[in-house]
Amino acid sequence: MTYPNSTGFKENGASRENAERIDASGSAQRMRRKVLELFHKRNFVGTADEVAAALGAHILSVRPRCSELVKHGLLRKTHHRRRSAGGGTAAVLCAECK
Fold it and tell me: Which domains does the chain have, with CATH numbers?
């Protein structure tokens, strides 16, 4: 499978091995499910950093899952941006924006 149906990687080697390990463990799928539950059950709207904080999860586990869910059309980027942990800005995401 290819991104976004599986964990992405930039090149062969360690990046690919880690992506395959993450897919095999099911952790990416579990995190996608948690992210979607947050957005749907709590009517959440926020950045990937805010999702990570709300779930008590590491941002590096959450950010890629948010990107995958956007690619699948399950989350949507709003027209708003907020400050990210890295000092830049990040898109505010929603599941059922109006």
Answer: 14-94 (1.10.10.10)
Whether the link from the prior residue into 4 is cis, omega within 30° of 0, is: yes
Which token pair is 7?
């964990």
Q: Is 56 left (phi over 0), alpha (psi -120 to 50) or beta?
A: left
Cβ pair 84, 69 in contact under 8 A: no
pLDDT, residue 1, reads: 65
pLDDT interval class at 79 (50, 70, 90): very high
